[in-house]
Request: fold
Amino acid sequence: MGGYSISDLWSILVMQGFSGLSLFSVLLLMALGLAIIFGQMGVINMAHGEFMTIGAYTIYMFSKVTEQYFPGLMPYYFVFAIFAAFGIAFAVGYLVEFLLIRHLYKRPLDTLLATWGLSLIMQQIFRTVFGAREVSATLPDWLMGSWKPTPDIDIPLNGLFVMAISIVVTAVVVLFLYRSTWGLKVRATTQNRVMAGSVGINTRKIDRVTFAVGCGIAGIAGATFTTIASTGPTSGSLYIVDTFLVVVFGGAGSVIGTVASAFSIAQAQSILTFFLTNAMGKVVTLMTIIIILMIRPEGLFRSKVRK
Amino acid sequence: MNAFYTRWLGGKKGAIELAVLAVFILVVMPLWLDIFRLNLVGKYLTYAFAAVGLVMVWGYGGILSLGQGVFFGIGGYCMAMFLKLEASDPVSTVHQTTPGIPDFMDWNQITHLPLLWEPFHSLTFSLIAVILVPVLLAYIISTAMFKRRVGGVYFSIITQAICAILTILVVGQQGLTGGINGITDLKTIHGWNINTDSAKYILYFVNGALLLCVIMLCRFILSSKFGRLLLAMRDKEDRVRFSGYDVANFKIFTFSVGAAISAIGGAMFTLQVGFMSPSLIGIVPSIEMVIYAAIGGRMSLIGAVYGTLLVNYGRSAFSESFPSLWLFLMGSLFIGVVMFFPNGLAGLYDVYLKKWVEMLAMKVKKIVVPGKLNSVKTEL
Reply:
């Protein structure tokens, strides 16, 4: 890394670190949904990326409709669109659980294949409806621009916004999982479905809502994704491997672990990308994760041995 | 001879199935199709190697590997590296800045052959590498995972990540691997041109025969005590472990065998199709190999071949006329086979067709051997 002075290096570190934070936010939101679906329920949802894409396309549609018919509302549409992204992804997730997932709880490896098939179908639907080309939503003005604490450092506002959303969503999820009756029921159901049923918890309903909530969070991830990149039919599938690694690396079922691993993976990738090439940064990150997982298969935050 | 009959061929039923497949691949197809289509079938049959490997690893071993494309790809690349070196002799590459190295290296300003490529001047080394490199990789991965009792879903996800890593690596190291285009313009193997029609015929038959041999080898492995242990492990791993077996070693062996089988397919792919590229390593082709095995029936070695042919035939038929419909169909295949036919084509055959086939066989027997008529009747 010759040729960089100390202050240059510092600026690079801060800026790359910050672009890593944007990646972290998207990864975290994706992984949170998956940590609930995979970590808690044991369902391998390969279509998780497509639920993210649903959220992203929702924002796109909202921005187009607002731009066309209610230009005065442009500054505010984004907030409503995020809720809509959650709602639509939630509804689709609810339907998918009802039609597909609930028949496969006893065969986790088969959920992998079935949801992969689902992801192919969803991608083709996106392609048919929105076209194969990438689209981007028109963002409200207050998301554009950047914040410059020093002349060398340039931090985009949309990144800050994305981070704020992911922090809020994480807090809400933690609160719901560990401080609400619903969370208690979810944890009871996932720990022992039969016992939970025998004490009067409607496990089928819990499963369905839990799966749908996980998908809904992926929808929010998609909403934030639109602020940093453009959306195509296969945008979500690019993240699916990373997301699974985040969940596995963090220790399935542990929210703190998910946060920590999303952070370290995103930061490593972002900073390595600057010094190596884009591809090599990713390779080194993924390799490191796999090697760590070989040494410590239970992930960062879990002490139990896996089956 | 008797042991060969029962163990390699799988008894009378297995022998008939194998004979039908052999006739189908080696006689019906070449007579029916022109060389272009036959070459295409040959390409599909190389995928069938991976599917057969998956039947071993997934159907019998219960290890769902989403990284079969990695081994397929490495096998293919080992073969392609040899062919490429032979195709880029100093005479035919004289117009390059550095003659005697593959063209894509020249384009990437590389001036001498990388050390990694050196040994691939030798055909013997390349053929050994086709098997050995994937097996070694499979051994390392599976030892690290299974010895620490990581299995099931986690193993699947890690193999998928390895797929992603290898694809990025191959695409990223353009000077070393040819990047996204892969290794193309392959011409001869030891001076024998692989692009002529006659060579394509020969390669097709070699490929078909190899596939049948691999199926027989798998039958042999599965008919041993090892095969029974494998099934026991798949269903109740702990009990096998408590009985005193080292479960991890069996799994490592199975996974490595599956890798070797896929690698043979990869090498045959390179020979028949004439190139190798990262598009065959990635996550998508690897998971498609799983669906070939699933459609054929995850417990049926022969079914895997039919499954591969069927899916690929469907793909070429549909993507020519309705490209957008194909993904819908492929997706529905995934869902349908998991939800409604977990045993795939082989399962359908067992439930619906088998009794008719057996009745037909009985009738044929009656006609051919009328003397045995009475004994059949008394049996019935």
